[in-house]
Structures are given as structure tokens and as C-alpha cells.
Amino acid sequence: MGLDDYGGGQGPQPDVLVVTTNDVPGHRVQQVLGEVFGLTVRSRHLGSQIGAGLKSMIGGELKGLTKTLVQTRNQAMERLVEQARARGANGVLMFRFDVTEAADVGTEVCAYGTAVVLARE
Q1: Closest by alpha carbon to 112, among 83, 89, 69?
Q2: Residue-wise pLDDT tens digits, 75-120
Q3: All domains of the chain, ordered by start, with CATH?
Q4: Overall pTM surpassing 0.70 (yes/no)
Q5: Which of 7, 48, 75, 88 might form a disulfide with 64, Cβ 3.0–4.6 angstroms?
Q6: Distances (CA, A) of 90 to 10, 11, 49, 94, 102
């Protein structure tokens, strides 16, 4: 069952629904496939580190670092979805991100959740 059967949205529907909740209203969990995750580590380049250091002295958004973190989170989530799809899931419940510093050289982002097969009730 693909998520095209779910309806309710505009445009193409993803084949793996990712939610932060324990369940999806109107659906039941047919099968729990287990934990899935997507992990990536990104280093900051020297220019953005210098810019961030200067910006932190005067205040304001660190746009270069924000852009890098958004790209990193997206990549981690894409890897999570790939892993869920490979296991036959059409949903991921209890989706979360974990972000940590990796030995002062970059940022580690892990997207994780529980891969499931969902069916309409």
C-alpha cells in the first residue's frame, strides 16, 4: 500500500509518511519493522567558522551555519526514509532528531524513528 492511497494532501504524496506521533489518525499499524535511522556528520568550513565567530560578538543569526544545519538535517532524514523504504515500511512513527558536536570538527545529526506498515482503518 502506497501513501497515494492516503489522500488528503495536495500534490504528489510521499511513499513513506514520517510523523512525530505514536500513531496516525484513521490508520492502524499492521506491522512494526523496528528502528530506522539516518546519520550524517558535517564539518564547518573555515570561512563560516570565522564569520560565525565575528557574528557571535555582535549578535544576529549565523546564516551560513543555519543553512549547513538545514542541509544536514535534510540529508539525515532522506537516509532515514531510504532505510525505512528498504525494509518495506510506508511509515515512520516517533520521528526525532538528535544533534551533537563531533569532536569539535563538525556536527553529527541523527534522524530516527520506528518503521511501520500502516493500513487505513
Answers
A1: 83
A2: 999 999 999 999 999 999 999 999 888 777 778 899 999 999 999 9
A3: 3-120 (3.30.110.70)
A4: yes
A5: 48
A6: 18, 18, 39, 14, 32
